[in-house]
Specification:
Two copies of one chain form a homodimer.
Chain A lengths: L2 E6 L3 H12 L4 E7 L2 H8 L8 E5 L7 H11 L4 E6 L4 H9 L4 E4 L4 H14 L5 H11 L11 H10 L5 H7 L4 H15 L4 H10 L6
Parallel strand pairs in A: 1-2, 1-3, 3-4, 4-5
The first copy, chain A, binds a DNA duplex through helix 9.
Chain lengths: ~210, ~210
DNA sequence: TTTAAAAAGGGGTAAATCCCCCTTTTTTTT
DNA sequence: AAAAAAAAGGGGGATTTACCCCTTTTTAAA
């Protein structure tokens, strides 16, 4: 009896190709393929569609891998999620692991490693490369506080700041006094150690608060 | 006799999965896989390694798809390049086609479409989806001049502008008068129809002049 | 040697940044 | 429940930077 695997991945060509790969493994077979997390949750309503393992991409439209993994942890904790992504950003990986992923694979890996990862996740409950393990260890002692807390209002302001609008126009759009906007800016500059609006824009894009 | 295909793609898992897919097609077989353009050109030194078709990713480290395709057009014009990318940006697609690609496929396509594309490229010399064809038609009458020519010095300035430096500091770093820098900025703003530095930063990142 | 471009500059206005300061409300702590 | 702290909103005024228009010099090209 083979273990069942579901692929959640928005790029059809990759998911179909992966499907072929996994079906070639001795112990696994693909149950079906989904294009995003929402589709997956819909499918899960039928118990026959619940697999042993979900191979989950992170960057997807509609419902991304992190949200989906968190939802699965809530509703279907027996399903093991193996994350699969090009994303090497530390925070993203940590978010995914916190959401309940049992393993994290880069797309830049050998197929034999994928097979090993699947086997380990199924049999021992987790699979992690050295890199991810080190990352986990590093995140235990939160060294220099990488995750600065920005308030909702500030985040909203930052998105406006990533446009050609002046602060006065932003104030108008957010129904606030220009002085309040200046206050947001100043506190953000201080928290993030920024010098000017250009720095803020770069930060916003790096941290995905704003997608250009 | 099957047509030979080489995959150039930096994500090993995808290239291996694709490899399985293509080997499953009746008329095609994978000759080998490369991780980037440089590796491909090295391989090509042995004539036995020259395939009928190259399946080429665009975003690669070391030597990207556009450079590589241009090089192939020069040195091995008989080899047909089929571009394969997640990139939907118009300029990127046009650059790739100008570099000599015979077709452009999004990774978000069915495997049957990949097979069709390979067949068409091999037999008729090109394959294009409706979207790409429309894009080509649009680029013939260069309507609103999508490809503004930026001078080298201006591009260099833009990269500096994507930092927290003031224009004065940029002038210093580029060994120019602040007034010259202002001149660069003004001409760029006019060419690209920008209002301020924030707009410039967003433009630079969108067009990949600056990678955050 | 004209012609154009690149580089440099002057001066003015608006925007951004940076200091101080304040009140009110909400949340947390004691 | 009272006190303290944090969050949200607002201000005055000074300095710097950014932005814009227009001119001159220097350099490179035709």
């Amino acid at each position: 009896m083979k273990y069942s695997v579901v692929i959640v991945e928005d790029h059809i060509l990759l998911s179909q190709a992966l499907s072929g790969l996994v079906n070639g493994f001795a112990k696994f077979k693909i149950l079906y393929i989904c294009k995003n997390g929402k589709e997956l949750l819909t499918r899960f309503k039928d118990p026959k569609n619940i697999p042993d393992i979900v191979l989950m991409d992170i960057n997807m439209p509609i419902m991304n891998g992190i949200e989906t993994t968190a939802a699965l942890k809530e509703q279907y904790p027996q399903v093991k999620v193996l994350a699969l992504s090009v994303e090497e950003d530390e925070n993203t990986i940590l978010k995914m692991l916190r959401a309940g992923a049992k393993g994290y694979l880069l797309k830049d890996t050998e197929k034999s490693i994928l097979e090993n990862a699947l086997i380990q996740v199924q049999e021992t409950g987790f699979y992690h490369t050295k890199d991810v393990t080190n990352l986990l260890l590093g995140s235990l002692n939160p060294k220099e506080e990488n995750n600065v807390m920005l308030k909702d209002r500030e985040v909203e302001f930052i998105k406006h700041a990533c446009t050609e609008k002046t602060y006065k126009e932003i104030a108008n759009d957010m129904c606030l006094s220009p002085k309040t906007i200046e206050g947001y800016r100043d506190s953000i500059f201080e928290k993030l150690n920024l010098k000017n609006r250009t720095g803020l824009v770069i930060y916003a894009i790096k941290s995905k608060l704003f997608v250009p």
